[in-house]
């Protein structure tokens, strides 16, 4: 697929995924959903990818859904939403199941599905001027893009409910306080800080990162004994990796570990 609303490149284990439709506010429309689904498929099959950095061109990260597209054919909209979310949600699921951790660099406005998508990142770095807008209820919509899951995981169900139902707008500092983002920096520092974190993760123990990501995704819906067994199985798999052996030897030899992602 030739991407028009995204740019994807992989270098040195770091996949860089950029939203590239700033004139329209990087909308989550049918075209974007198809492209992000393809990008997630490509990334999930690339064993060289050890971390993913997501950012966006233009003054806003994304305005979320494309209202012009919505009102263009209101009668067909329910069916279109099912078509678009089939692609979008497959992308969300594939990215969440990968070993590679995700870093998001957010600036400007981040609304609706874009905010939910960003909330699924492992580390979110945002500018002080950024704003996170629930948006959905303001146009009579419920949420998609994994928003119900990701918001609840990051800020708790009660706070996520308030954010969505009251159609709130959060400043960067408010988002930091409730756990929606992880770091707030100046606008000119966002790209550098996010890139540094992503590159650090890309040189880490990728398989262990994947096990941790999947354990945290199951923690809220598994009984204690089941989750403990999942931890044991994941740790055993991690212990069998080359990176675990390297980490142990490096610690014993008092040197820095050289992880290869294997």
From TrEMBL:
Q: Which domain of life is it from?
A: Bacteria
Q: Which Gene3D superfamilies match?
A: 2-enoyl-CoA Hydratase, Chain A, domain 1, Lyase 2-enoyl-coa Hydratase, Chain A, domain 2
Q: What is its main location?
A: other
Q: Where are the transmembrane segments?
A: 102-121, 133-152
Which keywords annotate this record? Isomerase, Membrane, Peroxisome, Transmembrane, Transmembrane helix
What are the subcellular locations of this protein? Peroxisome
> Can you name one GO molecular function term for this protein?
delta(3)-delta(2)-enoyl-CoA isomerase activity
UniProt entry tagged with the keyword Chloroplast: no
Family the entry assigns: Belongs to the enoyl-CoA hydratase/isomerase family.
Q: Which PANTHER family does the annotation name?
A: ENOYL-COA DELTA ISOMERASE 2 (PTHR43684:SF1), PTHR43684
What is the recorded name of this protein?
Enoyl-CoA hydratase/isomerase family protein
Q: Tell me the organism.
A: Sphingomonas koreensis
């Amino acid at each position: 697929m030739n991407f028009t609303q995204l740019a994807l490149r992989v270098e040195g284990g770091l996949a860089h995924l950029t939203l590239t439709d700033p004139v329209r506010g990087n909308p989550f429309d049918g075209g974007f959903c198809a492209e992000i689904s393809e990008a997630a498929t490509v990334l999930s099959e690339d064993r060289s990818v050890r971390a993913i950095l997501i950012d966006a061109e233009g003054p806003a990260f994304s305005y979320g859904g494309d209202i012009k597209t919505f009102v263009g054919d209101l009668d067909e909209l329910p069916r279109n939403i099912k078509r678009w979310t089939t692609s979008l949600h497959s992308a969300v699921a594939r990215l969440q199941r990968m070993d590679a951790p995700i870093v998001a660099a957010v600036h400007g406005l981040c609304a609706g599905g874009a905010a939910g998508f960003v909330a699924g990142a492992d580390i979110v770095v945002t500018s002080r001027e950024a704003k996170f807008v629930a948006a959905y209820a303001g146009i009579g919509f419920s949420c998609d893009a994994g928003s119900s899951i990701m918001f609840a995981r990051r800020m708790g169900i009660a706070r996520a409910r308030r954010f969505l139902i009251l159609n709130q707008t959060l400043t960067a500092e408010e988002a930091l306080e409730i756990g929606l983002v992880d770091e707030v920096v100046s606008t000119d520092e966002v790209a550098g800080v996010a890139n540094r974190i992503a590159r650090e993760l890309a040189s880490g123990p990728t398989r262990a990162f994947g096990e941790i990501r999947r354990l945290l995704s199951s923690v809220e819906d598994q009984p204690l004994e089941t989750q403990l067994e999942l931890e044991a199985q994941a740790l055993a798999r991690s212990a069998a990796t080359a990176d675990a052996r390297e980490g142990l030897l490096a610690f014993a030899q008092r040197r820095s570990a050289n992880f290869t992602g294997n």
